[in-house]
Task: inverse folding
DNA sequence: TTGTACGCGTTATCAA
DNA sequence: TTGATAACGCGTACAA
């Protein structure tokens, strides 16, 4: 009778070799009911001091940790926000994740993150989304470029949702997006203000999946420049393959050597970095021989490297996203769908210079 | 009777404005019992074809999504692994997170991430850990430099745990660590092999919290060098303040100008990057005037920048961590505690050159 | 202020 | 192969 009766279900649940302390263990230890323990934990209902002490003692002694699954089941709601991000190995998502964590804490919310494996597979992203929904989180933040709002909307009828960063609106989904049109304008203004008139823009000219954003940026850079009367040459970077990248660099470098352009615009800071290296190897100086700009401003060391770029307003994106989710979660009515758009800021850096006369 | 009887608890749970479809809704729709739906979902128990079809149909029609909280409660175990990381806005944690996600998928496990807000506050990290335990995840991966194993061990008696990357062993906790001693040796070997004998090492000489790793690296760089008979000068970088950083740069640059050293060793790639900029502004060329090495190899663009550094084996760290967790989760007995240690690889880059004679 | 008892949504046991 | 039903651990009227 010693070990067998120790816990009534000792042999009824051999599924795990790891013990679990429950609330009734604590209640028994403290000679109170489970309801009292629950109320003590909740903190919203007053509990007499001697009882408090007993319960605290019992919790410490048993090492009890509340089972959040049971809590959510009983409560029906949860103050946890689910975050779906794509590739954590990407400064953009890294900063976003970090800032959202901060924002969640400010609103006394919890953040639970699911990352979809890298690569552009919409299937696996839907899996991640499903897992978040299965957790019955109180709200969902979707920060993955590839999952289209249309697909999303059928999934998330039942939980407050905000789509972050996608340059796209949707009739039933809240979105906080990055205004790539205005961002491109920032770059263009800076380049023109420094007297450049002959400019090469490098970007994926066709809209491949996964290169959507860069395609968009390049398109708008070009359009803004042309509308301002600049002379624009575009160079297509159809893929991320090193062959394509190298060919792009060669073309740009040739244009510089032939004095056809005085500035080269790229659609990401990594691309700019790649060009900087190629230029150096080709004996071309930046910004003396050619000015160059990037896009993002998120790479660790951007300032150190002196990249001229647009800093994406990731912090504001995170803040607004969390605010909207929070409002939806505390309100018991459905709020009107919101669409917001955020503009970045230009970082002058040292790769963009005034065009020398002649 | 139309809307009022639609769902029996329509007004009994007004907590949320969002509807929830449950398993019994599906069961009713398909004219089967909840048990059948559950078995269908589980997939391990055969279900007759006509029944399958009915259930599938009903699930689609109702838009049902399983409640994982209830599942975990009923099952008592879960195939979800909890990951505690520090600052997602940090390439190291970003890559780790990404690779762990991949590894989890390979083992058919789910990964749920909690990030502790940036800053070195052990309190908030314990909060994150507690939240993971409250989720009753099947295993826990701790990847945060600041939470000491000793503190950890009292928390996680009841769930398989692996500590990732901390240079420290513990009698009851599995650890997969980065062998900073061997990593430092890699740098030292490379520097000595290129003929350098007069070397400056820059690092926090006192062991501040949060600078532990860099302190360790610097200490071992110095020790290895001295053991090999090199002439080492150390420069203290007590903090991350820009004043301290600049003072460090000045000292190193003076040493170079006075021809006291031919190589400068830094304890992170960001530090190296900072020095590269300072050197450039001071008119000192790297590696012509002085060779320089970093530590990490994780910055996006490391190869582009040509940093000479040690690439931390983050991928292997993730893989081993996930393997160990998986083994512990499938085994119903407790496995012996394991300690493993991983060595990185040297990246030659372009900031380290052969020392010129004289 | 505390205790009793039921329900939350799902799984698993046992019959049918 | 399926259906009823008892857990799972916790929150919360309702009663005391």
Result:
């Amino acid at each position: 009778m010693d070990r067998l009766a120790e816990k009534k279900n000792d042999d009824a649940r051999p599924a795990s070799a790891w013990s679990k302390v429950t609330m009734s263990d604590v209640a028994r230890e403290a000679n109170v009911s489970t309801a009292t323990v629950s109320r003590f934990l909740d903190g919203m209902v007053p509990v007499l001091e001697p009882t408090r002490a007993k319960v605290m003692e019992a919790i410490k002694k048993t090492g009890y940790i509340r089972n959040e699954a049971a809590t959510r089941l009983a409560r029906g709601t949860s103050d946890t926000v689910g975050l779906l991000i794509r590739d954590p190995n990407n400064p953009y998502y890294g900063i976003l994740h970090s800032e959202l964590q901060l924002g969640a804490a400010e609103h006394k919310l919890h953040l639970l993150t699911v990352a979809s494996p890298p690569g552009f597979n919409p299937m696996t992203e839907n899996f991640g989304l499903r897992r978040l929904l299965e957790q019955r989180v109180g709200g969902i933040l979707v920060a993955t470029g590839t999952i289209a709002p249309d697909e999303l909307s059928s999934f998330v009828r039942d939980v407050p949702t905000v789509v972050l960063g996608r340059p796209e609106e949707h009739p039933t989904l809240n979105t906080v997006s990055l205004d790539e049109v205005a961002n491109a304008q920032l770059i263009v203004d800076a380049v023109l203000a420094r007297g450049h008139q002959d400019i090469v823009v490098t970007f994926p000219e066709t809209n491949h999946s996964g290169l959507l954003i860069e395609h968009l940026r390049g398109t708008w850079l070009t359009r803004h420049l042309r509308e301002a009367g600049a002379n624009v040459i575009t160079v297509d970077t159809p893929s991320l393959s090193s062959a394509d990248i190298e060919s792009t660099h060669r073309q740009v470098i040739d244009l510089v050597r032939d004095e056809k352009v005085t500035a080269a615009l790229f659609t990401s800071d990594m691309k700019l970095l790649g060009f900087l290296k190629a230029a150096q190897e080709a004996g071309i100086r930046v910004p003396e021989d050619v000015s160059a700009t990037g896009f993002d401003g998120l790479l660790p060391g951007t300032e150190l490297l002196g990249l001229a770029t647009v800093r994406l307003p990731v912090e504001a994106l995170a803040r607004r996203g969390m605010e909207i989710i929070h409002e939806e979660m505390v309100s018991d009515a459905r709020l009107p769908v919101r669409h917001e758009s955020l503009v970045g800021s230009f970082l002058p850096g040292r790769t963009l210079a005034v065009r020398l006369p002649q």
